[in-house]
Amino acid sequence: MRFNKLTKALLVGAVALTGGFEGYRQVAYQDSGGTWTACYGETLGIEQGDEFTKAECDKMFGQSLEKHNTPLEDIPQQLPANVHLASLDMAYNIGTGAFQRSTLYQYLLAGQYPDACMEMPRWRFVTIDGKPRDCRIAKWNCRGIVTRREIVSQLCLGQLSINDALARLGQLPLDKEIIERIKADADTE
Question: Please, are residues 126 and 34 in contact by the beta-carbon 8 Å criterion?
Answer without folding.
Answer: no
